[in-house]
Amino acid sequence: MRRFFLMCLLPIFLATGVFAQPQADEYPYDLTYFLPEGSHVYDPQVPTPEKILGFQLGEQHAGWDQVVEYMRTLARCSDRVTIRETGRTYQHRPFIEVVFTSAKNQKNIDRLKEEHLKLSDVAKSRSVVIDDMPVIVSLIYSIHGNEASGVNASLAVAYHLAAAQGPEIEELLDQEIVVMTPGANPDGINRFASWVNSSRSFTNVSDIKSREFTEPWPSSRTNHYWIDCNRDLLMAQHPEGINGLNGYFEWLPNVVVDQHEQGALRPYYFSPGHPKRTHPFTPQLNQDLTAEISSYTAKALDRIGTTYYSKEGYDDFYYGKGAAYGDAHGSVCLLYEQGSTRGHLRNTPSGEWTFGWTIRNQALASCATLEAAKAMRTRLLTYQKEYYERTASEAQKEAVQGYVFDTRGSKSVAFHFLENMARHHIEVYQLAKDYQAAGDKEFRKGSAYVIPVAQKYSTMVKVLMEDCLEYTDSTFYDISTWSFPYAFNLEFAQVKNTNGFIGKQVVEYRFVPGQMIGGKSDYGYLFTNVEFYTPKVMYELLRKGIHVQASNRPFHFRSGDIEKEMGYGTILVSAWNQPVSSDELYELLSKLAKESGVDIYAATTGLMQDVDLGSPAYTALKLPKVAILVGRTMGVPDSGEAWFLLDRRFQMRPTLIEATATLTSRKLSRYNVIILANGIPDLTKESEKALKDWVANGGTLIASGKAY
Questions:
Q1: What global pTM score does this model have?
Q2: CA nearest to 536, candidates 589, 605, 584
Q3: Main-chain dihedrals φ then ψ at residue 399, nearest 5 degrees
Q4: Coil, strand or helix at 542
Q5: Minimal CA–CA distance to 341: which of 226, 205, 221?
Q6: Which end of the chain is less congested by CB atoms within 10 angstroms, N or C?
């Protein structure tokens, strides 16, 4: 009977392809599908993407290593192409910058770059001859890793620029320098390509329920720490944002195109955005030039029947995005958004969309932008030159001429703020003399700084330091305000006249190590909780078994000739009854002080003026054993922010636990701190009870945003 059953099933297996070799749908596109129309012929010595990838564009998703290899191949095969590595991601993947221009321009690229940068220098720009100067266009693809049409389109655009022959392309490359970032988020790009390629069927499936379309939390949109890299150009805390700023200031391009994807049901979008949602610091001429460039994109999409829209939905307000940052620096920035297939085939109200079709739209939009830049070359160069002349003149007339600030005694905050200002090329000076501001704010020479408005990037100074509280339209696609004094918890004041207050320019910022003040002690050591990296010191001491206490009252510290006001949360480390010798404790504290910037004070006695060091005001601390509940329903960037802070900044070794996991009292007993970041964990009733019992037994639950 069993044999008969198997014999009956055999024809079914054969019919369904269990034993037969399935035949894939024939891929409908060849390379010409992705290339712009024109009288181009292509150099056979330059390999096509298919030669290197092993598949045609759109047939599957290119991994980041394949993209890098193809760009390196072009640089070896064409004298129009150069490539350089500009940094590394958290996962050690390379960022690359690929430059396309004529062979003649490539030979003189350093001189051309130097001449171009003079446009932003009012003292030098008058001598610049714009007529023969190439325009610089920056093409940025896929800052969000799962917006894959961009990075794949970069391969078609790169091939076109490297291999096309004829008068049209030769004129374009002679008059332009194209600076391409094929992928601005290599970790996310690679993560998404791996997911889709390993989850797809051999034949394309458009059923949205298919695993191909259900990428797991946190998705590949973000970087390693689940941060939205397209919101990091102002704070510049992660490799992707830092690399983006470095690339921008390397060239100060005239045109920046930031290519993204949006929801699958939307047509193609291109800038300008909603006319009433433009930042007041962005000139109207910028928006006029944006619209003119976009008209070339519209014509390119008209020719292939792709529907599109602009002037609604998105805005041009938040300067922390790639499609807006340069608007505050004399560039013209454009956002392109392709409706996403996410996989290889997608049903939409306007018919089936293929992944290849989305790549085609992005590639042709890029090429159309290059045509626009060529046609508008002298006007774009003139706009940038006159932008800096105008902003320099306006800066001299501003009612507020500068901003004075200090970091409330934190050397590490000062370091990170000055580091950020340097990344934005903002000039910061030491305060030359004490300044008394309104509201009894006092700023002392030696610990305070001043940022004058009248400097090269005066617009960005105002962007970062001013409150913007008046809007033509109060509806925003993105962030509405981002004042840095509040982000860094600065004490600051506006200055109407900087004469006499500008001291030595801060040209080198460095992390100031902490000191062991008072030398070695046989009694104990204290340090305040002011410095940013104090938690790192506390954690490392507790991890090594050192007994640590914290004061719940402020007091006046006196030891020999040393006096200091100690605030709430001051840390006491006794020199006796520790698991290490007094010499080993001193060496450990010295090391931690140097690494963290925390000053540690030696106490020769426990007798203080008010709160003695043996007071009940001191409480013993426990080693934080931290778990972050992550996974679907939890906030992605919020969870990533907590992870980054604890892991990267404080090295606290947090444990990431899937929120859908079964939580038991036994499992939770390993931790004394649990973080829920902006989401409601999807817990079973048993897990929910275990978590409540854990809190009732003394566990610390930290919930933010929607978590409760």
A1: 0.93
A2: 589
A3: -65, -35
A4: helix
A5: 205
A6: N
As to burial, measured by CB atoms within 10 angstroms (0-12 exposed, 13-18 middle, 19+ buried), residue 499 is exposed
- Rounded CA-CA distance 638/678 in Å is 6
Tens digit of pLDDT for each residue in 633-679?
Answer: 999 999 999 999 999 999 999 999 998 878 999 999 999 999 999 99
How is residue 270 annotated by DSSP? E
280, 329, 369, 461, 472 from 283: Cα distances, Å: 7, 11, 21, 16, 15
Q: Residue 339's beta-bridge partner residues?
A: 262
* Cβ atoms 46, 74 nearer than 8 A: yes
Q: Which DSSP string corresponds to 51-77?
A: HHHSS-BTTBPPPHHHHHHHHHHHHHH
Q: Which of these, 423, 419, 430, lies nearest to 452 by C-alpha position? A: 430
For residues 696-705, average pLDDT = 96
H or E segment at 110? Answer: helix 109-117
Query: If you search the block for the tokens 């076109």, which residue do you land on?
Result: 160
Six-digit token string for 317? 């307000």
- Other C-beta atoms lying within 10 Å of the C-beta of residue 386: 15
Average pLDDT over residues 183-196: 97
Would you say the C-alpha torsion 28, 34, 38, 44 has a positive or negative sign?
A: negative
Q: In this structure, which amino acid lies at residue 80?
A: R
Q: Is 323 within 8 Å of 253 (Cβ atoms)?
A: no
212, two tokens: 């191909």
- If we measure between CA atoms, which residue out of 263, 291, 4 comes closest to residue 146? 263
* Cα 694 from Cα 692, distance rounded (Å): 5
CA distance 243 to 335: 19
Q: For the chain, what percent of residues have pLDDT higher than 90?
A: 86
